[in-house]
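User: Hello, can you help with two protein structures?

Assistant: Certainly.
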Amino acid sequence: MSDPTRSWQFNPVIVAAPTAPDVGGTPEQTLKLADTLSNLLPYYGSAAMLYQAVMGQTLSGQDLGTADRWLSGILGAIPAGAAAYGKISDLWPARGRGCR
């Protein structure tokens, strides 16, 4: 019979595998953090927030309240509106610079 104190020598995979540190977060908190971080990404975040406002749920499937939907819609529309304004202003010449 083998010595139980030396059993680690027979399974090096278990000894070599690092364990993840316990950060104390629940799966729900982890999903909320992932959703928040995805909203901060350039270009993708604006589209994600508009999706959340229209669909009423986050990308991970959590339901949003009315205030969260409004906030997602407003914050998602600001960059989209700024980009649209920039494109439209490039098409039409500014007053005073165009042909008379």
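That covers the first. Now for the second protein you mentioned:
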Amino acid sequence: MSVATLYNTNGTALQSFTINATEFKINLRNYPAGIYLLKTADGKVARIVKK
């Protein structure tokens, strides 16, 4: 089990997730189009682009 946090490009934490699997889905429906960063507790960062 791991924790990940979704950030906007200003560095504001938007939402935290507990990850229990190697794959998971994030619902970005309530967020505007833009670039988001998903950072895991071990320091890995994934860039997400919502169009």
